[in-house]
Amino acid sequence: MIDVDCSEIKNTYSMRDIVERYGFHPNRAGFISCPFHQGDRTPSLKVYEKDYHCHACGANGDIFTFVQEMEGVSFKEAFLSLGGTYRPCSRIASQRRREQIKREREEQREAERERTAWKWSRLGEVCRTLRMLDRLIPGMEPYSEVWEAAVSLRERNRYYYEILAFGTKQEQEEMRNRDG
User: Fold this and answer.
1) For residue 172, what pLDDT is reported?
2) If residue 10 lies in a helix (H) or strand (E), which one and from where to where?
3) DSSP label at 141?
4) Of 2, 98, 123, 146, which residue is most buried, by most CB within 10 angstroms?
5) By the 8 A CB rule, do 58 and 69 touch?
6) Beta-sheet strand order (sheet of 51-54)
7) Sign of the dihedral through C-alpha 155, 160, 162, 168
8) β-strand pairing of 31-32 with 51-54
9) Contact 127, 165 (CB under 8 A)
10) Neighbour count for residue 149 (Cβ, 10 Å)
11) Other residues' Cβ atoms within 10 Å of the Cβ of residue 45
């Protein structure tokens, strides 16, 4: 038996598919008369791709909420009616899953702490190098090999500073991986 979860169902059905199941046909602007309140003279419920919102009564939700409200059923029953599969798990399996999620979150937090520690350490190194080069370069013979190497090193460290101070996480991770 293949398990079908909420995200797969949401990817299968659009909100428009669901409202049309109940005989509603959105107008060109995507509105229908709201089935959740009385006296709707002009359509007030906007049907979006994955959810809905009534501008008159405030009703809103996703495909599951719409089915729940229309049929007066629980989430589980709405989920099953849309093709979801539900198998209750044992307390032990449920506890193991919670522990696994807790471990994964802790690993993510630890990885983020390590990344942040590396970033601040590396930023300190880069700033010290830039200050040192800014003091040394003016006393060097312009266009000599040593001067060119120092200017090149300063530019490289300015680039590193930009990544560390203002770059995206991805750019910083790439720099960290290059550093080894």
Assistant:
1) 93
2) helix 6-12
3) P
4) 123
5) no
6) 31-32, 45-47, 51-54, 60-62
7) positive
8) unpaired
9) no
10) 11
11) 25
